[in-house]
């Protein structure tokens, strides 16, 4: 077996692959030979050639290295070997909240309320630490995470809750210098001010906390829609339902905490993460007096422990290759059924499809065993087994990307009696697309033969009015702004191109790239904000808006929300205070003149 190394680290497995970086599980050892598991985040080669993204990785390491908190995954090292830039982080053996949410989609019971409350209480403790962290001189760093989402929170098998990934975190100083108008993070977990591309502070993270609380308790996506445009609009305008409408057992006290965190207006939101943590802690031990932190570990093992883990993962993958000599002794796999969790069904473990020596001999027998197993359980499940040639590829079911599938056979558990849209993609090959429906208990093997793309790659010039909009191709950021030439697009292929500019409506266009040269699209963006210009006679009056101090006259603000009611109070010593209520229209810059009356 070939060993892959990155410096002093031995690569064990690829955990994730994104548009900018790959994440690996690895191990290292100290001079005494004591081994330690770690996670390595490595920038992809084509990204590493761009200085701004190397700087992002360095910034991430510089920020995270300050943290020594039990609820934050620790950063150990920042390295460069040749053209490879990477961060080495603490390995947390557990499940992300996104994995937990996906698993509970098919379970009859929701995630226990006390588990959610404790988890988010711990996250708020971590955020309070992050937001109030100071440098060695005692100066506040003012760090904002900006990507508090299910993928970035892990519950370990020991019951610890960890915040990970500071790839888009920034200090307020850096935000003020470079980040105004640049969109970072995931649309569905952004605060309204972040979605508009405005400067954000720690209260933006608190809105994300509210989203997580809402989604974990209801197991429903709050703002996620069919595309980025609709998602952004939902963040800005969607009337947030009370979580108790979807899950009546949620108490009014807990609902009050959630809805306060989800206020679109910062002045109604929680001020500090510690305030949410304190409220959650009081509620937890009042409404769930028997709760203990060890219940978190018990929860994870109940649903994702070693035995449950084998029942959720496809049998053909995630397991080491079979040694032919060792297969003479039959071992067993314990599998929990969904309906009878305490009952164990033993089946002989005779095959592992990923093993090349047994691949073709064992597959027919394996298909038979799996088919009998599902028929016996009587669940509304089916199994789809893919054999993809050539090489590995990206697989999507119903437009949701699963992961990069390795070469060989790969099994997916799918819902039975429902139409499934399957897409298999590989660079340089035509997309394989199929629609199918499997019967209850059915196992279907599908050979996916990827063909070379015969179309000539084309370029497309895109521009917006005004310029400077972030570009999204099929809902994925390409890390470039308009005007820009999109290169190497497939001819005669449909693309969805999105444009995001702070303070403007997210625009999206469907476009078919033809075989013609010099293709171009221009998009006029619609403004989302309004402005106000305030003067008073005499000048120097203090301005309070909805109870918050904004500044003194004369005053200009061009980033206000259209349609919102603003309550203005003007105060100046020796003069009668004045109160004015107004609303603004999108694109309007409204003049407001105040004549103050002496006392």
Description of the molecule:
There is one protein chain. This protein is an alpha+beta fold and 599 residues long. It has a six-stranded antiparallel β-sheet with strand order 1-2-3-4-6-5. It has a four-stranded antiparallel β-sheet with strand order 16-15-18-19, with no helix packed on it. A four-stranded antiparallel β-sheet has the order 23-22-25-26, with no helix packed on it. It starts with a strand and ends with a strand. Mean pLDDT is 78; it is low at 171-182 and 307-378.
Q: In summary, what is this structure?
A:
By secondary structure, the protein is an alpha+beta fold.
Q: What's the arrangement of strands in the largest beta sheet?
A: 1-2-3-4-6-5
Mean pLDDT: 78
| Rg computed from alpha carbons, rounded to a whole number of angstroms | 27 Å
Please state the overall shape, judged from the principal axes of the Cα atoms: globular
What's the CATH H-level homologous superfamily of the largest domain?
Answer: Transferase(Phosphotransferase) domain 1
The major pleated sheet works out as: 6 strands, antiparallel
The CATH C-level name of the largest domain is Mainly Alpha
Strand content: 25-35%
CATH topology of the largest domain: Transferase(Phosphotransferase), domain 1
Terminal residue distance: 88 Å
Total helical elements = 13
Helix content: 10-25%
CATH architecture of the largest domain: Orthogonal Bundle
* Total domain units: 5
Q: Count all strands and give the number.
A: 34
Helical/strand content category = alpha+beta
Regions with little confidence, pLDDT below 50 for 5+ residues: 171-182, 307-378
